[in-house]
Amino acid sequence: MNSPHIASAYDEELKYLTRRISEMGGTAEQMVADSVRALVSTDAALAQKVISEDVILDEAERQINEKAIVTIARRQPVAADLREIMGAIRIAAELERVGDLGKNTAKRVFAVQSAGIPRALARGLEHLAELALMQLKEVLDVYATRSAEKAKAIRERDDEIDAIYTSLFRELLTYMMEDPRNITPCTHLLFCAKNIERIGDHATNIAETIYYMTTGSQPEGDRPKDDNTTSLVAGVADSTA
After folding, report:
1. Nearest Cα to Cα of residue 39 among 101, 131, 98
2. Which domains are present in the chain?
3. What is the rounded distance in angstroms from the CA atom of residue 16 to the CA atom of residue 76?
4. Distance between CA 157 and CA 135 in Å, rounded?
């Protein structure tokens, strides 16, 4: 964290941004966890709860942006302080998007409610969600400590979620090819799986922002990726041609 400022009110403004980001992170985590639980158990009431909570994150992002703008105008921060404030704006946007993905997953509950979800596919979604939520929790912990090394380490693990997503994508395609009646529910699950995979991407984006806030530079090299779903779809198209 940065050194205390002469003006204690300035420190309070920066602490406000940090506190609100942490609160947003907790809300986003819970929304994602609840959305997956609602999907697996086809719990419409829980899904509706997740959908209704999206406004909480929207309002939190608005408040963070307003506070950041006022602080920049009043304090004219430079260097680390400016990176701190701009980082809060960027991270708030990432967390708001995580909440949107949780809400979108919850909306799919109503589409698959009648058919239900095969247990094997439910396990795959739960495993994918566990990895994404673990990455999100870890990066929020890193935000509290501002550890550039840990932020970089999280970024380097981005391909783990991609690999699980590719495996689940392949399994869903197999279900659809085996029985046309599975096409509609599995299509909804494909969208849900992609939502969860994107949550991992947003966690990685946050890790990159924390690294920049702490060091003043971007992480070197491209982040590792292991999403091979494009080639899987191409292979299916070739086999059915």
Report:
1. 101
2. 8-233 (1.20.58.220)
3. 17
4. 9
pLDDT in tens, the chain (241 residues): 555 555 688 889 999 999 999 999 999 999 999 999 999 999 999 999 999 999 999 999 999 999 999 999 999 998 999 999 999 999 999 999 999 999 999 999 998 887 778 787 888 899 999 999 999 999 999 999 999 999 999 998 888 899 999 999 999 999 999 988 888 889 999 999 999 999 999 999 999 999 999 999 988 877 766 666 666 554 544 544 4
Contact between residue 126 and residue 81 where contact means Cβ atoms under 8 Å apart = no
d(Cα 100, Cα 145) in Å, to the nearest integer?
26
Which is nearest to 152 in space by CA: 66, 211, 198, 239?
211
